[in-house]
Design a protein that fits this description.
The chain is an all-alpha fold. The chain has 14 helices and no strands. The protein starts with a helix and ends with a helix.
Length: 344
Amino acid sequence: MFIILLIPFLVAMFLAINMGGSGTSPSFSAAYGSNIIRKDLIPGLFGLFVLIGALIAGRKVVLTISGGILPTETMNFTLTTIILLSVSLTLLIANLLRIPQSTSQATIFALIGVATYLNVLQTNKLLFQIIPTWFILPIISLIITLFVGKFIYNPIKRRGIFRFDKISKYSLLKSTVILTSCYVAFAIGSNNVANVAGPITSMTLNKLNIETNVNNENFLLILILSILIVAPCFGIGSSILGRKTIHTTGKEIIPFGPLGAVLISIVTATLLLFASVIKGIPTSLVQVNTAAIVGLGISKVGWRKILISNNSIKRLLIVWIIAPLLALSLSFLLTATADKLNLL
């Protein structure tokens, strides 16, 4: 049993490393973009708060990932490995392209690929909660930062009430920006760790014949152990792969100061925590964060420069469309291959 469980856990750790590389960007791009934190300090802070967020607020999303799309009882050794491997390869490609990608969307589409092949796709939560949330939250994020930027941030700046370019010299504001970045990392833990912990938790429960029930002590123990194995790998991925993706959203879309960084971080993390704790919906932190950056950018330089002339935005949109479809295709094809080889 140890050998059987070892392979998907190793794949899960590989996936978590890739997720750490992708998740570093939405959590610390604001602080990095405003030049108030060094790159070498980011992985440690990121990994720590991801772990805390997963342990405190990640339970509902794990339940959605482990049984909301693909029935829990079908999650065996082979299918778990296929799902995690499909998402890992998709995120690896995105990281190599320096594009922060939604781990939640890649995971959900990988689950859809497997469930579609097995003809056991559960569409209720997918169609009426998960997919609508993917569209609604980035729009809300963009509107909030656009409104605040246009009617509060920019008027204060134009009137010269105080010098925005001098604010970064104050240690209190620097600390606030870093704390809000840690808040985003906490939100990532509450939502995105489930993309890895969910499948391996279900697989382990099935192997040990333990019922999936939040009131079951054995279930909670396996869930916590899965998180403790997976979450630290986010920090490793941040150190190895996060340096390039953080530059894309932190420096190439629009430059912003520390107050803008605080606004972006708070909006991003709050919306993600809402999806995690209240609804238990795996959603795209990357897209919510980027929408917040775009909203603030539009308030500063106009929508044409941000949405039309900015090549980084175009690259993001292309990869965001292709990557989930790639995860779906990989999981479907790998499941079909495993079926032909009698591995299911």
